[in-house]
Amino acid sequence: MEMKFIFRAVLKCGIVGMLLAGTPLQAKDFPNQPIRLVVPFSPGGGNDTLAREVAPRLSALLGQSVVVENKPGAGGNIGADYVAKSAGDGYTILMASNQVVINPSLYADMSFDVLKDLKPIGLVADVQFALVRNDKITVNEVPELIQLSKTSNLHHGTPGMGTPQHLAAEVFNRMTGAALAHVPYRGTGPMIADLVGGQIELAFATLPSVDGFIKEGRLRALAVTGSNRSPLLPDVPTIEEAGVKGYSVSTWYGLLVPRSTPDEVSGRLESALREVMQQDEALKSIAAKGFEPKFVAASDADRIMKDDFQKWESAIKDAQITLD
């Protein structure tokens, strides 16, 4: 009887010890299987482009395949929800943009809480928008455009309702009193086609999507939307430099994991991502595609996400935008 008691006690201690030791041992061995990098939009967009830049380089450092998997739909909510509800083991990562903190203010019925259910590994790049026009109008400066919009019917195109491009224009209208009418499209491609073709006059477009047309002279950039001039268009002023004080809008991209992911695992991923973003070849390749590569550590990225959540919540409420 005494021997049975001792055996059970030893067995219980062993099980408890294994449970207590499990997480650090798993973190130490991480990764030991392929990792999924989920893109919440269709192939070809900014999230997808950056995911395919980052994935093979992470794979080389981690010693495991990092497979890009597109899960588009509902403005990015389907893919983000999938990652938010995945096991917090480091094997499912989201390639996010700031759309992920914009959507809660657009959709009344969100199936996850972005700030509670997801946490960043780090940010990898920013991209500005360019305020561009075609030859249907001849203004060359932002103040001229503002005045013209009050006397003419001017239309700006976006990839869709509630996209960062849409919000960039709404903030511009609110801050300047401009009256640019919104024409939403199903994606960037159709919008750019109509802009170049003359069906609309203007767009707040990502630099990668219009840089070639600007250089060919088919579109003219009046300003860029960030806080600094773009290396791609160094002679083009920011909207703030053009007279709209306090205006600054850009999109960030970064990697997020479920909030339940152990710090040892997310820290391993963050270290690998930091190393990727220190590689000259990676930085040149990302910059060549129109992005501004910039690594932001997890703690700072967490603050940026929370600040952006509040910023866009206010802007969307003021503009009375809803997608439900």
How large, in whole angstroms, is the Cα Rg? 23 Å
Mean pLDDT comes to 90
CATH architecture of the largest domain: 3-Layer(aba) Sandwich
Could you give me the name of the CATH homologous superfamily of the largest domain?
A: Bordetella uptake gene, domain 1
In the CATH scheme, the class of the largest domain would be Alpha Beta
Spell out the helices and strands N to C.
HEHEHEHHEHEHEHEHEEHHEH
Shape label? globular
Portion of residues in beta strands equals 15-25%
- Overall number of domains: 2
Per DSSP E runs of 2 or more residues, the count of β-strands stands at 10
- Biggest beta-sheet profile: 10 strands, mixed
How large is the count of helical segments?
A: 12
Please report the distance between the alpha carbons of the first and last residues: 67 Å
Helix/strand-derived category reads alpha/beta
Helical amount:
40-55%
Characterise this structure.
This protein is α/β, with parallel strands linked by helices and 324 residues long. The chain has 2 domains: 27-126 and 251-319, 3-Layer(aba) Sandwich (D-Maltodextrin-Binding Protein, domain 2); 128-224, D-Maltodextrin-Binding Protein, domain 2. The protein is built from 12 helices and 10 strands. Strands 1, 2, 3, 4, 5, 6, 7, 8, 9 and 10 form a 10-stranded mixed β-sheet that branches. Helix 2 (46-62) crosses helix 10 and helix 7 (164-176) packs across helix 12. The longest helix is centred in the N-terminal third of the chain and has 28 residues, at 2-29.
